[in-house]
Amino acid sequence: MTAVLIADDEKDIRSALKIYLSAENYTLYEAATGKEAIDCLHEHGIDLILMDIMMPEMDGITAVAKIREESNVPIILLTAKSEDADKILGLNIGADDYITKPFNPAEVIARVRSQLRRYQSLGGQKQTEEKIVIGGIVLDDAAKMVTADGEEVTLTPMEYGILKLLMEHPGKVYSTKEIYRLVWKDDPIRSEGTVAVHIRHLREKIEIDPAHPRYIRVIWGQGYRFGG
């Protein structure tokens, strides 16, 4: 049975979401704080989390960051229209999608179904030696194929090489010279511009919002890293 966790400090919102999702035959859990959400994740086999941003004790953004340290379970943020900055921050640190309040029941169901299809099609995001899965990005090195949120993306050989390098070592910062030497297999003379152009094109293909990337992050004065 698919398990969905609804994390929101407003009981009426939790009740409404339970009504929307009850027809889908999900096992539904509730949490009123970010801490309760993390505890529930540890206690039960959760397949998807609906996470409110503004909650007491531990807000949704902090909870998303902590969950991403240990799990790739899909997370859909529950946001108010006034929380655009927090929504972008949440996506940047690992949330998969968002729904704006007040909710449209059909949209809630559609977005939950979409995230669960992607997650379950990847076998719960298990990683093999030839397949790297981080967030919504899947790199299948055997097939030389990359998908972003379930959609196949077409990369040039150099874009693929950059993505593979960064995904194989998430959190590690690579300078432009290191990236050029490892991907192009050449002396990294005047490599900064070339790498930057390829990074920009890569972001346009895999990021929801390339201007606010959640996967390929720039560390000013140092280089690039995947995630974090």
Kindly describe this structure.
- This protein is α/β, with parallel strands linked by helices and 228 residues long.
- The protein folds into two domains: 3-121, Rossmann fold (3-Layer(aba) Sandwich); 131-226, Arc Repressor Mutant, subunit A, CATH 1.10.10.
- It contains eight helices and eleven strands.
- The protein has helices spanning 11-22, 34-43, 60-68, 84-92, 105-121, 157-168, 176-184, 192-206, and strands at 3-7, 27-31, 48-52, 75-79, 97-100, 131-134, 137-140, 145-148, 151-153, 216-219, 223-226.
- The strands form three sheets. It has a five-stranded parallel beta sheet with strand order 2-1-3-4-5, sandwiched between helices. Strands 6-7-8-9 form a four-stranded antiparallel beta sheet, with helices on one face. A two-stranded antiparallel sheet has the order 10-11.
- Strand 7 and strand 8 (145-148) form a beta hairpin.
- Helix 6 crosses helix 7, helix 6 (157-168) crosses helix 8 (192-206) and helix 7 (176-184) packs across helix 8.
- The mean pLDDT is 87.
Features:
228 residues; alpha/beta; Rossmann fold; Arc Repressor Mutant, subunit A; 2 domains; five-stranded parallel β-sheet; four-stranded antiparallel β-sheet; 8 helices; 41% helix; elongated
Task: Write the element-wise H/E pattern from the N-terminal end onward.
Answer: EHEHEHEHEHEEEEHHHEE
Taking all Cα atoms into account, the compactness measure Rg is 19 Å
Termini distance?
A: 32 Å
> What count of structural domains?
2
Number of helices: 8
Number of strands: 11
CATH homologous superfamily placement of the largest domain: Response regulator
Largest sheet properties: 5 strands, parallel
How much of the sequence lies in strands comes to 15-25%
Largest sheet, spatial ordering of strands: 2-1-3-4-5
Secondary structure class reads alpha/beta
